[in-house]
């Protein structure tokens, strides 16, 4: 570190979390053994084994779907919205009460900085349950009817394990559906803690079921004839496979897939704010964000100035122990993901882009990657086209607003975008022309339960969040 | 039956505002409900489908960029011109669907009224399905619907006019452009409708109509990487083909409006779903106070 001073470590205590040596599946309100081969989940910052987790095989998935169906038929779909709401409010409150524990566990299992888990993930999780709790007894006002679909099979990724659970479970339950949820194989622990929260809330057995496992478990869930709805967040490749699997069935599907967002900075933008937004856009959560601003489009006249400020800011980013409250970038979630980031960065260099990262000491154990940027990137470069899903920023330039829009839209993805300018009319014009589901103007990576989120084109189908998010879980909606 | 059935013309495709024959040179016999020969309609090929997608893509920017007020008037204008040519449509529907004059009259009335109904939605759907989101923070945050792009429409097989209008209007009123495969056995009302579009104020390429087989052209449209969405109502009752088209549509994650088990009753008001199926929601954030 070249900084003139160093921070004293400010470690969050992990004593608040009680990790069991092994976990089962959560089916019908109880923890049960899985039929598959148990797997280990590790702390990506230290490679320490945290726990052994059961793998659900096809029979387990079948049991979970049956439990969900029984709970749907006998209890949950018959319950009034008013009563369902109260359960969701209870869950929201327990999440708040156990927020520290959830944040620490999320940080341990995922590798994300405790500061983000504590200040972003967990509060937003609670907010989602509060928000959708309030819809449960007001569905007739949303315009999609109030008839639930039935059993929802939900598959979530490892980048925001608990937040993605909330995005999926809260609206599904509010609308009267029951769920079988599969967390990612590298980050199952907070979902299993959520199962305990469901128990504490006395949620009727079978309303929420959690099956742990990897791709095969997910496939068994998607293909199960007993589910009425598939909700998936993850890669575009898997999203396409799911779309093929549900073809010709009555299963409804929403897909929240990849992105390659353009963050467009015009020459009249407030530069310091823009730099903060660029940093947040690509280095938040180690860049493991589907809507990350991974392509920086800078107006040519300010490119040099902006890059100098951006590099200066990047030298202050602190990479290291996720449980240290001073940490900005934590660990890459898995060895596999780290390898992909290495591979694509090497391709970037080989294709002639200029690679830069601030000097930074990385821990010897665990999976780490420094905040990195590539200059001289063209639209043909793979690092400008493929989702890297890591702390790697590609910098491109443009001269006119029309060129910015052209380059921003030149991707099969269409999840998000950023626009930085002091001129309101320019922002609105660019926002109108961008083919993306979320446009952040003079800000980036903001999320709120009242706000619909989802992609255009190959970034997926449907919206999560807000009134729109109910459409995915009600029969009367066509979306 | 009118004696005017004997007045014949060449029925062609409608692509990019022009009326070409099929590039393949193929045509097929169209017979009336009683089985008598009526005309040789153009049999659209894969290449015609591709040309239509190119035309629709080219028209998308201009059409989606128009004000909703303007699109409303253009659609209303289509209804006006259609009303003006009622007798021709009544005859075409009678001929195609074998309806009595009174019933064909009602179908045409309904088709014109359906266009008027959808025209009115152009500048209202944003208010009904969009909104301002009260986020917990100092941000101004709006969600608005936007057209998804180029939509392939496999039009209903039985209802040659009312069904056709009921699936085209919701797609284009919101700013999408369309590539439509008409009813195979009853394509002539679609050709007449294309003539109405061409003489209304609808820009060339916004609606492209191909007469031919959904089973033949459908797979090409479903797998076309520059088509954003597909309406499968035209293959209602053929679940195997519908499933095949859904699989093809997954290649670029098209929005799919699934085929129902049987063709719907088009006399019923279609509701918002026929529009929202081909809309995206865009959420725009901006800070307040900084």
Task: Please supply descriptive tags for the structure shown above.
heterodimer, A: 479 residues, alpha/beta, 7-stranded mixed β-sheet, 6-stranded mixed β-sheet, 14 helices, globular, B: alpha/beta, 5-stranded parallel β-sheet, 3-stranded antiparallel β-sheet, 10 helices, 10 strands, 18% strand
Overall number of strands of chain A:
18
Strand % of chain B is: 15-25%
Largest β sheet strand count, sense and barrel closure of chain A: 7 strands, mixed
Number of strands of chain B: 10
Strand content of chain A: 15-25%
Terminal Cα span of chain A: 51 Å
Write out the strand line-up for the largest beta sheet of chain B, numbering strands in chain order. Answer: 7-6-5-8-9
End-to-end C-alpha gap of chain B: 73 Å
Helix- and strand-based class of chain B? alpha/beta
Average predicted confidence as pLDDT of chain A = 97
What oligomerization state is this entry in?
heterodimer
- What's the overall geometry of chain A? globular
For the sheet with most strands of chain B, the description reads: 5 strands, parallel
- Class from helix and strand fractions of chain A: alpha/beta
Largest interface pair: A-B, 45 and 41 residues
Shape of chain B: globular
Secondary-structure element string of chain B: EEHHHHHEEEHEHEHEHEHE
Query: What is the alpha-carbon Rg of chain A in Å?
Result: 22 Å
């Amino acid at each position: 570190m070249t900084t003139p001073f160093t921070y004293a470590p400010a470690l969050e205590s992990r004593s608040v979390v009680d990790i069991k040596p092994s976990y089962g599946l959560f089916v019908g309100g109880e923890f049960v053994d899985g039929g598959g081969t148990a797997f280990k989940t590790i702390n990506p910052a230290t490679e320490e084994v945290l726990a052994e987790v059961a793998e659900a095989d096809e029979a387990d998935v079948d049991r979970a779907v049956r439990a969900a169906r029984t709970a749907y038929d006998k209890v949950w779909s018959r319950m009034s919205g008013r009563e369902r709401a109260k359960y969701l409010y209870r869950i929201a409150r327990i999440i708040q009460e156990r927020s520290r524990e959830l944040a620490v566990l999320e940080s341990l299992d995922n590798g994300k900085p405790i500061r983000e888990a504590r200040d972003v993930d967990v509060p937003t999780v609670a907010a989602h349950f509060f928000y959708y709790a309030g819809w449960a007894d007001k569905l007739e006002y949303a315009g999609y009817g109030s008839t639930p679909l039935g059993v929802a099979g939900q598959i979530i990724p490892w980048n925001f394990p608990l937040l993605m659970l909330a995005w999926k479970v809260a609206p599904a339950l509010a609308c009267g559906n029951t769920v079988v949820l599969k967390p990612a194989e590298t980050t199952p622990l907070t979902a299993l803690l959520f199962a305990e929260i469901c128990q504490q809330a006395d949620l009727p057995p079978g309303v929420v079921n959690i099956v742990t496992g990897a791709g095969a478990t997910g496939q068994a869930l998607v293909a199960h004839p007993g589910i009425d709805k598939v909700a998936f967040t993850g890669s575009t490749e898997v999203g396409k496979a799911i779309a093929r699997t549900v073809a010709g069935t009555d299963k409804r599907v929403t897909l929240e897939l990849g992105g390659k967002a353009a963050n467009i900075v015009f020459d009249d933008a407030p530069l310091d704010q823009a730099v903060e937004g660029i940093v947040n856009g690509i280095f938040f959560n180690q860049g493991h964000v589907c809507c990350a601003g991974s392509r920086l489009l800078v107006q040519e006249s300010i490119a040099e100035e902006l890059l100098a400020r951006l590099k200066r800011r990047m030298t202050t980013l602190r990479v290291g122990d996720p449980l240290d409250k001073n940490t900005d970038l934590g660990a890459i979630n898995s060895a596999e993901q780290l390898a992909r980031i290495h591979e694509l960065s090497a391709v970037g260099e080989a294709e002639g882009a200029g690679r830069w990262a601030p000097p930074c000491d990385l821990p010897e154990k665990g999976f780490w990657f420094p905040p990195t940027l590539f200059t001289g990137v063209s639209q043909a470069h793979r690092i400008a086209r493929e989702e890297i899903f890591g702390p790697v920023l590609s910098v491109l330039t443009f001269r006119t607003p029309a060129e910015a829009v052209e380059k921003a839209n030149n991707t099969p993805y269409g999840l998000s975008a950023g626009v930085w300018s002091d001129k309101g009319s320019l922002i609105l014009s660019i926002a109108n022309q961008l083919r993306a589901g979320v446009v952040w103007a003079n800000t980036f990576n903001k999320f709120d339960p009242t706000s619909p989120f989802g992609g255009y084109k190959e970034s997926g189908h449907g919206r999560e969040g807000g009134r729109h998010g109910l459409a995915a879980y009600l029969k009367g909606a066509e979306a | 039956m009118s004696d005017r059935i004997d007045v014949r013309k060449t029925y062609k495709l409608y692509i990019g505002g022009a009326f070409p024959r099929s590039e393949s040179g193929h045509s097929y016999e169209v017979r009336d409900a009683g089985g008598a020969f009526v005309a040789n309609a153009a049999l659209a090929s894969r290449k015609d489908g591709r040309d239509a997608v190119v035309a629709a893509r080219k028209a998308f920017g201009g059409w989606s960029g128009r004000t909703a007020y303007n699109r409303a008037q253009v659609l209303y204008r289509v209804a006006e011109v259609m009303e003006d040519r009622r007798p021709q449509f009544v005859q075409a529907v009678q001929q195609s669907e074998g309806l009595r004059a009174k019933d064909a009259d009602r179908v045409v009335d309904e088709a014109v009224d359906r266009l008027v109904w959808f025209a009115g939605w152009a500048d209202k759907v944003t208010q009904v399905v969009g909104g301002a989101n009260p986020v917990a923070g100092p941000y101004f945050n709006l969600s608005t619907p936007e057209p998804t792009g180029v939509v392939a429409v496999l039009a209903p097989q039985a209802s040659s006019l009312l069904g056709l209008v009921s699936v085209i209007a919701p797609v284009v009123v919101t700013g999408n452009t369309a590539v439509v495969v008409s009813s195979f056995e009853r394509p002539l009302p679609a050709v007449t409708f294309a003539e109405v579009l061409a003489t209304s104020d609808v820009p060339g390429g916004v609606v492209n109509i191909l007469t031919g087989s959904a089973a033949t052209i459908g797979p090409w449209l479903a797998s076309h990487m520059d088509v954003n969405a597909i309406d499968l109502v035209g293959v209602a009752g053929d679940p195997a083909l519908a499933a095949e088209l859904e699989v093809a549509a997954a290649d670029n994650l098209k929005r799919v409006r699934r085929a129902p088990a049987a063709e719907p009753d088009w006399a019923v008001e279609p509701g918002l779903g026929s529009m929202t199926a081909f809309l995206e929601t865009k959420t725009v954030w901006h800070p307040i106070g900084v």
